[in-house]
Amino acid sequence: METLEDEHSDDRSAQKAKNSFPEEIIEEILSRIPVKSILRFKSVSKPWLSLISGPSFHKLHSTVAPRTTAFFFTARDSSTGTRYFFSGANDGGSVANLMKLDDTVFEAADNFAEHLKGLVCFTSRDSLCGKLYAFVCNPTTHKFFKLPDPPVPLRNYTDENKGDYYLFGFDELSNEHKVLYIDVELFKSTTIEIMIFSFSNYSWRKIEADLPLGISARRCFVRTGDSVCVNSTIHMMLRNPFQILAFNLTTETFYIVNMHPEAARDTILTSTYPYAKLVKINGLLGLACCNPFNVDQWNKVHIWMLQDYEKRVWVTETVSLPPKFQIQYGEGGPYPFDSISMDEIILSPRVLSGNLIRVPVYNMKTRSFESILLALGHRFLSPKSVHVEQIKCYVESLIPLQN
Question: Which of 307, 182, 159 is nearest to 236 (CA)?
Answer without folding.
Answer: 182
